[in-house]
Amino acid sequence: MKGKHHVIIETNRLKYEFDIKRNITVIQGDSATGKTTLVDLLEEYSSKGKNRGIIVESDVNCEVFSGQEDRWEYTLDGIKDSIVIIDEDYHFVFTKEFAEYLQGSSNYYVIITRKPLKNLPYSVNEIYGIRTSGKYHFPEQVYHEFYPLYDQDTYSTLDSKVMFLIEDKEAGYQFFCDVAGKDACISAEGNAKIYQNMISLSAENSLLVIADGAAFGAYINNIVKYRELKKHIALYFPESFEWMILKSNVLDDHEINEILKHPENYIDSSEYISWERFFTSLLIDKTQNDKIKGYSKTKLTEFYTSGKNASAILNVMPEYIRRLIDK
Amino acid sequence: MLTIIFGDSDNIEYGPSWFKYNYDPLWLKDPFVQEMILGVDKSRYIDGLVIDSPVLGPIPPERLSGGLKTLIMIYEKPELTFDATSCGENCAGYLLEIGKQKDVRVNLNYLMTFEKYSPFEVFIENEKRIISDPEDYLITAMKYI
Q1: Which of A27, A116, A194, B143 is the most buried (most CB within 10 A)?
Q2: Domain ranges of chain A
Q3: Which residues of chain A have a CB within 8 Å of the CB of B42?
Q4: Is the Cβ of B142 closer than 8 Å to some Cβ of chain A?
Q5: pLDDT value for A160
Q6: Do the bridges between strand B57-59 and strand B50-53 make them parallel or antiparallel, or are there none, so unpaired?
Q7: What's the complex ipTM?
Q8: Of the candidates B66, B86, B111, which has its C-beta nearest A225's C-beta?
Q9: Does A199 touch chain B (CB under 8 A)?
């Protein structure tokens, strides 16, 4: 499935309104915000029929997973091109088998859980809480909306020496080593070691953590909580390093600019498990026949690391992050 | 004291289901349970099996939030270990309070923080030690979550 889908679930007393635009969306946040009620309403509507005083508006089918835990694959096989909500008491969502299943699925999944889904590459931008607006005057209707839980643009004052902790050791790491200096860059060599590196490096330095936001959802809560305690840590989570290159316009390609306005309209969930993979594929496709611009994740060419192109890529970052690199 | 075991563990109970099928109406008469109903769900216990929710109106106990149901189970059945992952951050203060009243053991699979309730003390079963420092707690939890 592609595209952004606007969903309204409504009764006389309750209204939920939200957009879903990627294959994996995670709902978490405080207790008593209305997660269970959302599931109950949609389950009643989708499993027992439409004449029950619940209005659901969406351009695609929306339903709640209500199958047996040990037969989840069989149940999901029967659902196509739909938004599927999975409540917190199902454990199969944490398995490698579910992660593999998602790679070819035409559905978008909305998963209610506070436990990190470490096998799934979900975006830091698609983790939502639910909030209500207005004052409660029962039986007047209460409006519920999703809001992003992780605001990346929180400014951090980093005044001592800044170290750069990069999630991987590929092209992005090479780029930041080139522009900020090799001595200032450390690779975490994967998500699993990022906490350990963050804790040890932040003991003596100001720290900027850079990771691919499109697939970093499972790790964001711990990092944000640690940052709340250690104020000298800044975070930057672009979709991916490849997205930064595409966004910088160094390839001067009209089609890329059009895609980046609404990537959800081009990224098919059954083809790409995360937007990160789509952006990598797009960048490789667009440069594969060019000896100078040809992009490889493992070895970055000089085209991207020098002069005005490097500056253009850096300019994709918010100004306060750029200033840290200038330091 | 509140004992926490981080990460996957055996024999962990799911609070919302336990509550739904096993709650005792007398539990609702307990002033501390009523305080948790007000604090977490912003709802007031009326009488019998009636709770007044600002969003849903008069509701039975089955319609309380999953986090609150789990808190009540932890409080009422301290001999069992419940998965406190069902409890949001707004339950953290009550978890500590329950731990002051009784010895309870909970499982946690996300980084719930207690810093704003400092000073606090929790026993981390994975490391077999008491932690009271917020940074020590965070660093320890991140090893397992």
Answers
A1: A27
A2: 5-148, 151-327
A3: 32
A4: yes
A5: 66
A6: antiparallel
A7: 0.95
A8: B111
A9: yes
